[in-house]
Amino acid sequence: MGTLYKGCSRAEHCQGETGSTGSAVDYRYRRNKRKRQLPDHFLSPQNEVELGELLLSLNYLPSAGRLNVDVIRAKQLLQTDVSQGSDPFVKIQLVHGLKLVKTKKTSFLRGTIDPFYNESFSFKVPQEELENASLVFTVFGHNMKSSNDFIGRIVIGQYSSGPSESNHWRRMLNTHRTAVEQWHSLRSRAECDRVSPASLEVT
Questions:
Q1: Chain centroid, CA 75 distance in Å
Q2: Which homologous superfamily is 52-201 in?
Q3: β-sheet bridge partners, residue 103
Q4: Is residue 188 within 8 Å of residue 46, measured between CB atoms?
Q5: 139, 153 contact by CB (below 8 A)
Q6: What is the mean pLDDT of each run of 10 residues along the chain (203 residues)?
Q7: How far apart are CA 51 and CA 136, in angstroms?
Q8: Which pLDDT score, from 0 to 100, does residue 203 have?
Q9: What are phi and psi of 102, to 5 degrees?
Q10: d(CA 148, CA 54)
């Protein structure tokens, strides 16, 4: 039986370390505390490092079978060169099913983490193939001396990389011929690879 401490009104809360009730209560408290902490840590790993945001516009023209993309701007991009800032550009890749079909890219803008692009791209996608299409957007920092520096990525379409991306795709499908704009928070390569098979098909 556990030792009762002086002045306690409820024995089960006042038992010493040798008391079975006190140990069980303490164990349940620590276990429940861990459960409450887990979701914030595991469900939002991308929030550990802010990679920046990307503003995109999408629209689809059924009669022409064209999927049109406007890369409008980005903001607060992760700075890849501390001394000179980033020279960011966006690579846009069309994936059909699990096959890379086409790659296009914006120009790169020197020394900024808040670039304005306002560049338009068009992809040939027949209407019967639209449901199997994914667009992979990857932001890189241009590097002339070595490989470009990865900043962040999102996937929109069949294999979207998150709820926000899925919502943008659905809105576009429901409003043919009308451009639909939306901001997106960039994700890490590892996160996109984990949730989107289309991300695994591009570089």
A1: 15
A2: C2 domain (2.60.40.150)
A3: 93
A4: yes
A5: yes
A6: 46 43 45 39 50 97 96 93 77 97 96 95 96 97 82 98 98 92 98 98 93
A7: 16
A8: 87
A9: -150, 145
A10: 18
